[in-house]
Amino acid sequence: MTNRERVIASLEHRQPDRCPYVIEFTQKARAAMDAAYGGRYLPLIDNAIHKVTATLGPKAMWIAGTVYQDEWGVQWERSLDPDIGNVCNRMLPMRSFTFFQPPNPYAPEKFATLEQQIAAGEGKFIRLSIAFTLFERAWSLRGMENIMLDMVEAPEFVDELLDRICDVNVALIEQAVKFPIDAVHLPDDWGDQRGVMMGPRLWERFIQPRVQRMFDAAKAGGKYVSIHCCGKVQELFPRLIEMGLDLFNPFQPEVMDPVEMKREFGDRLSFWGGVSTQRLLPFGTPDEVKAEVRRLKREVGKDGGYIISPAHQIPGDARPENVMAMIEAVNE
After folding, report:
1. Which residue ranges form the domains of the chain, and what is each CATH number?
2. Which of 101, 133, 192, 289 could form a disulfide with 188 if both were Cys (CB 3.0 to 4.6 A apart)?
3. pLDDT tens for each residue of 68-121
4. Is the CB of residue 326 less than 8 Å from the CB of residue 281?
5. Nearest 10 degrees: Cα torsion 48, 49, 50, 54
6. Which of 199, 193, 72 lies closest to 136, judged by CA?
7. Can you tell me the distance from the alpha carbon of 149 to that of 206, in angstroms, rounded to the nearest whole number?
8. 332: which strand partners?
9. Could you give the 3-state DSSP secondary structure of residue 332?
10. What H or E segment, with its residue span, contains residue 29?
11. Whose CA is closest to 227, among 201, 253, 207, 202?
């Protein structure tokens, strides 16, 4: 089977010839692996899923040595976290859209490189990813504390903000599904390690309707839908399944038991992740890593429905020997 065939079999809850996998690194983790192994580990990684994106708008640029500005005008200070960073400006300091200008999803250059990106993933499952999809985009523009207060104090403002963000995303999806991609991937963290951050009631009020619009746009184009949502959010799984979700990532074992989740939802939902980046990769041993990878492949990967992966991009404190053990075990 090709990697694409393996992922599709898994999404259709059929047993592939081997469990598909994805291994991605933070910059610090890659530097640690390079120091330990040179480039010898890279040819061993055969990721099943290939990420493509729309071209970023003209606002996206480095504006200082460690400050990156995205296409919405949000500035990310990356001296501590070189992969994402911390927001260091406020695009919406007030509950007003007077100076708010979202990126143009219909700009001629938006999909200029998409065909080339897709071609680079030949044989793999192709996912179009929209970064900071909805709630994350809202808090990056407005501030986390502010958007949470707004949900209670100014719900109409939140409705308009989320609708404006969603309009951009739906326009992107409607254009992207005309290309030979396999899935639309929507990263949007709603959880912490205690539960849904805004609570299920406010999630249903503000987040669900807009996520449904994006799901519907992808499904109308005949594509699978996957999400990335960190945290303890399994109470949302029944609703997300009803909405049409196919694949859930990152599947954090610290907050949800992979085997239990497979038992409860595995006939209706596929999972992507499951290898602990908080405990196992930083603090385990190579033998423990291999044993856990084999267990997940055997128990969660039975009858498909699973893409094995670290629960997030590999962090900088992961021990290189543990990462190498994981690479060896997923390839068995």
Report:
1. 3-60+108-330 (3.20.20.210)
2. 133
3. 999 999 999 999 999 999 999 999 999 999 999 999 999 999 999 999 999 999
4. yes
5. 170
6. 72
7. 13
8. none
9. coil
10. helix 27-37
11. 207
